[in-house]
Write a structure and sequence with these properties.
With about 375 residues, this protein is an alpha+beta fold. It has twelve helices and 16 strands. It has an eight-stranded antiparallel β-sheet with strand order 13-12-9-10-11-14-16-15. Strands 3-2-1-4 form a four-stranded parallel β-sheet, sandwiched between helices. Strand 1, helix 1 and strand 2 form a beta-alpha-beta unit.
């Protein structure tokens, strides 16, 4: 093998096998990209013919924490990766001597837990919302006294799309059933409220050689705590966008990233940037990259874990990405006949459920405001 990198032992050549823990839509799009690059793909997921398995060469049907199944995946793959945070860290450590795991376990260890994540960001010199550890009712009362209202109570692990969290607007919310439910986890965080004018995110990737590439800034609009729209380029001054990208690169270096990382941020009215959360994998707000960039976030992630050279990312067109939840499926299928220039993605999930991510639509545009109007006028997303 030619010595093409500083770390030739980390180079995974074309034709080798990528093992992906998790079989949802992120794994599916990773698999599509990997297959296009000539790689083989094996999925580990408990659901037969899950979305990722539909695009892969094979699937191991087993729970994510099944140590024997993870060992089998490690035996059959040349490199392991994952599509979500809830991976058994010890199981990964147990197979680290059997297969390449470029992302390692420190990235997951840090990002799986909001206290560890916020502490890492603070120690790395990044600005976050003020926060406090909450393990019981007494901790919550003391933290609220310190941070004030409004504030957000979150579980340290496992929450997503608004699950496992409660916005506390007054003392009355301290006794809300959802607050009590979150407290029962016994490992929570209380975050002070950041008065933001916009939410945004940046995808950043780094390989073993230390090469970094960064994607454009996405402006993100949420509805009911679930991402609804991503708009690129973000409607903010270029100086703010550059600062967001620089912050993402700083985080990638500080955490010794290998692979791709989603950096979610709040933008204050004064242009101050606050890092909200990190996603150690491809991210929903990066789906626009499939059509709108010269390389997608999935292609770049696969290149990074294989220690291939990383390309400089170019935005080929302004773009709007809109999520398709269960309640939007019928409507978006009708829109296929009205908007032939739109890109309709269906993840192939067996069961359609309210608020479940079923697909997304990517719209390349020369007029973002007109495109946002078309989305609104379609009435498909009226529930948002």
């Amino acid at each position: 093998m030619p010595n093409l990198t500083k770390h030739p032992e980390a180079y995974i050549e074309q034709g080798k096998t990528i093992g992906i823990i998790g079989g949802g839509q992120l794994g599916q799009m990773m698999a599509f990209s990997a297959k296009a690059a000539g790689m083989k793909v094996i999925i580990l997921d408990p659901t037969p013919q899950c979305p990722a398995a539909q695009a892969a060469d094979d699937q191991i049907v087993a729970p994510y924490a099944d140590v024997a199944a993870i060992k089998e995946l490690a035996r059959r793959a040349d490199v392991l990766t994952y599509e979500f945070e809830n991976v058994d860290l010890q199981a990964l450590r147990d197979v680290a001597d059997q297969v390449a795991i470029p992302q390692g376990t420190n990235l997951l260890y840090t990002t799986k837990n909001r206290i560890r994540e916020k502490t890492f960001l603070r120690d790395a010199g990044l600005q976050t919302a003020p926060f406090a550890t909450v393990k019981n009712r007494a901790d919550l009362n003391a933290a609220v006294e310190k941070l004030g209202y409004p504030c957000v109570l979150k579980t340290c692990e496992g929450g997503y799309d608004g699950h496992g969290q409660m916005v506390l607007k007054s003392a009355q919310d301290l006794n809300d059933p959802i607050t009590e439910e979150v407290l029962q986890y016994g490992d929570d965080i209380l975050e002070g409220w950041v008065p933001f004018k916009m939410e945004c995110s940046v995808m950043v990737a780094r390989n073993t050689d230390g090469d970094i590439t960064v994607f454009p800034v996405s402006e993100n609009i949420h509805a009911h705590e679930i991402l609804h729209l991503s708009i690129v380029p973000a409607r903010m001054p270029i100086e703010w966008q550059q600062r967001a990208q620089q912050m993402a690169e700083k985080i990638a270096t500080a955490i010794d990233l290998k692979g791709i990382l989603g950096v979610e941020m709040f933008v204050g009215a004064d242009g101050q940037l606050y890092v909200n959360e990190l996603a150690p994998r491809p991210h929903n707000s990066g789906h626009y990259t499939i059509e709108a960039c010269n390389f997608s976030q999935f292609a770049v992630h696969n290149r990074a874990i294989c220690n291939w050279p990383l390309p400089k990312i170019k935005l080929l067109s302004p773009v709007v990405m809109v999520n398709v939840l269960g309640q939007h499926v019928a409507g978006t299928r009708r829109l296929i006949h009205e908007y032939p220039q739109w890109h309709f993605h269906d993840y192939g999930k067996a069961e359609i459920r309210h608020n479940r991510k079923m697909g997304h639509v990517t719209i390349l545009t020369d007029d973002i405001e007109e495109t946002l109007k078309q989305i609104k006028d379609s009435h498909v997303w009226d529930d948002e």
